[in-house]
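Submission checklist for the structure archive. All mandatory fields must be present; incomplete records are returned to the submitter.

[x] Identifier: Membrane protein
[x] Organism: Streptomyces humidus
[x] Residue count: 117
[x] Sequence attached
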Amino acid sequence: MVGVVLMAGFAGLMWLLYLAMLILAVVALVMAAVFRDDAYRAADKQNKGFWLIILGIAVAVNLLVPMLFLQLAGLVATIVFFVDVRPALRQVSGGGWRRRRGGSSSDGPYGPYNGGR
């Protein structure tokens, strides 16, 4: 009886993990599609088509192939996009929301950081 409850809990945890990996892959795919193709060249990253294919495969694997090894490979590609490619694309595309507001890179949540001066 206890084993059945533990297995049901583990299955629920794995389902949440699969869902989180799918959501991350979909968000990365949408973000990769939003950036312009010339931003990838300017950031010296693989081209837009490459990232759309890789992230599209990650989404398809998460939806269609319930093999954890393949899903983890898709998760690695998604993490690489979020950690390496997306920041470079945002930098060459004019930055994020803080730059559009006119702030600088040293601004904190309550205004500019002056180093305690």
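[x] Structure attached
Curator remark: The two ends are 65 Å apart (CA to CA). The helical segments are 2-34, 37-42, 48-64, 68-92, 97-100.
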